[in-house]
Amino acid sequence: MVAIPTMGSINTNLVARLLKWKHAIPAYQLHFYFSMNVAPVDRARNHIVDVFLKTKTLDGQPLTHLLMIDSDTIPEDDAIERLLSHQQPVVSGLTPIINFDKKTKQWETFDNCFVDVQEDEDGLKTMIPERHTGLHKIKRCGGSCLLVDRIVFEKISKPYFLFDNNEDGTEHKRSEDIYFCDKVREAFDIYADTDVTCAHEKKILI
Prior knowledge:
Elements: E1 2-6, H1 12-24, E2 32-36, H2 41-54, E3 65-69, E4 73-74, H3 79-85, E5 90-94, E6 96-101, E7 106-111, E8 113-114, E9 135-138, E10 140-141, E11 145-149, H4 150-155, E12 164-165, E13 172-174, H5 176-184, E14 190-197, E15 199-200
Parallel strand pairs: 1-2, 1-3, 5-14
Antiparallel strand pairs: 3-11, 4-15, 5-11, 6-7, 8-10, 9-14, 12-13
């Protein structure tokens, strides 16, 4: 299943990619799902997983893999084949994140896969895998282009995704996808295919 958590809109370039997959991949092998107006995103992702686990193939078999793609992320043509080829329980593609550096007052970008859970002196997550260097074992990743085997959801407990705040509820500690990775690592390894690179279309108001 290819599923997109959306608040009601999807990038047009992503729509074009999904249409191309629909025509290129047989219908019995590929299912699409859109979580329309389910918010916030942790609730949307959990809703998607529930739908995925309940959905059957045309011949009544359970679906084997869930590929979640954010509504503003555009994977490459061969992303599905590349991610599946590794036969790993969790494999991510790389998606650039835009970040405003408060020290330099400059915008910067870095990919959303990390092989360490610590932060460097500047506050950014360390040891980001370089692109086009093959498959890397990682600790955390974003959920923008994330392939998960069914066995993962059957193994770990609910909620799968959760925004993690401090005790006062005033500060954000972990995003829902980082929470998912930290939970998954208790039972499975997580990988990033650095040859699966995505576009990430954002509008920044300055």
